[in-house]
Amino acid sequence: MPRFLLLGMLIFALIWIGLLALNGALLVLALPLVLYLGAALLDRPGLPQLRVTRSLSTDRVAQHQPVVVKLAIVNEGPQVEHLVVYDLVPEGLEADEGATSVLTTLAPGATVELEYILKGIRGVYHFGGVEVIASDRLGLFERRVVLPAAGHLMVLPEVIRLRQVDIRPRQTRVYSGLVPARQGGPGVEFFGVRPYQPGDSLRRVNSRATARSGETLFVNEFEQERVADVGLILDARQRSNVLASGGPLFEQAVEATAALADVFLKRGNRVGLVMYSAIVDWTFPGYGKLQRERILRALARAKTYDRRDVKGLDLLPAHLFPARSQIVLISPLQAEDLEMLMRLRAREYQVLVISPDPIPFEVESLGPGHDVDHAGQLARIERRLLFHKLRQMGVVVVEWQLGTPFYQIAHEALVRGHGPRVWR
Amino acid sequence: MTPVERQTGNRIAQSAGGIAIALATLALWLAYSAAGRWAGAIIVAALGLWWWVGDRRGWSQANHTGFVGLVCAAAVGLWLALPPLGMLVGMLLTLAAWDLQHFSMRLRTVQRVDAAKRLIRSHLQYLLLVLLCGAVTGVVALGITVHLTFGWRLLTGVTALFGMAYAIMVMRRTNES
Question: What is the pTM of this model?
């Protein structure tokens, strides 16, 4: 209840009871309250005429990195006795140092400044404004306004640095890079032997093959290395998202996607991103640092959604990816996804699935019990069966136990010669 | 303004509010117990304790309920013909406690207070002035006797009713705008 209302009701009650009971002392008792109300009325503030400007040290920042926010509030009206300023910090951001609110007296033309350091989790944030409360000295009458003080901040996901991720798409681009192109030519890895042609270096002559043929001179051929097209697909379906102990599973999938985008782009490849949920958020393929920034910005605004009518990856626009290119799907996988992956394989895409395991977290969230244990075992069997089918189709599946850091998984399973990789 | 200064300012306002609660309770308790109204004295003490504890523990409604409780205790005291001066003093201290508790709460809700000492001094001076005026007019008014006929009483009551309704409407509009 507002204080002035409570005070008014008390004054009114005392006056009426005093008059009804013919007790003058009760009327006297109301006098200090009336004077208090009158004093506050005399001192009551007008509508605050303030101008607010906001500045941020940067408009994009990595997760948990500090951003300095400065607010300057200039009084363009008469003196305000008590002025309370609250900066409305968007949810997800947290003030680490400094003050987001202040109580002050503001003379005409005077300025009050607020400065604080923000840190936040991945996301796109819009600052709503500043709530200002001007009041009289007794705090009975308040004028509350929200002044616009626009500001935008993009908190990009953390990028885990991966040294290397080996891929082997069916088709590569024309520029030289680090992806084996399935074609003979200049390179490092042995590819095959072919008859000698004028101009070939004599150092490349394969003496054993030449001796075996007796007549023709054979030379070693190496595998060309070129850049490739990589399509990253991030599963942003709400039904695939499980709350794990280290935060939502989706957040870890976002970080893995950022790490993969970073390493593929660093190695000169052309990378595109699709975030698959109720809508399909598509970042057009591109090269280099600019593309890295585009993908990180897209990942910063990534959110999970759901559509009840679509269960699998049916809406995935496969034609967005260049034919026979490399597709990397980051998803816990649902049983219904098998069909779409089969279709991708049929179109000769090289598919790599990185699948964070949601079962331990689902079991943990359901609590202990025999039924839960059995359900967990069944889910594990179903998952193993799904992986088996995918591997039979030629899809490379990397199971990611979320307790293990992604860089470790990437090093063990995605670098040639380190893990149980199947390259077809 | 450093956090230490803000905490000091906050502590001053909170202590002043606590002292005012204690004094208001004491004034009313003395008036009740001097007249041998022990039940009333116990209720007054319980109300004061509730207010004080509620304030320390941050109960949101403790300030309003404590204030209304002690104002009612003062009014009932007058009804029971207890000394009006004691009730007036109790009422003034109750009002001071209510104001100071609200002020200290306001200091607590913000993270920074600019020129806290000056702000607190200005508030206390203004409050003291209002209370002094209240005390003087109250004491003067206690010495005045006016006989009102039924018609005048009715007129005063109706005027108070409409006046208060109008005032509350205006205040509400002011606050909402």
Answer: 0.74
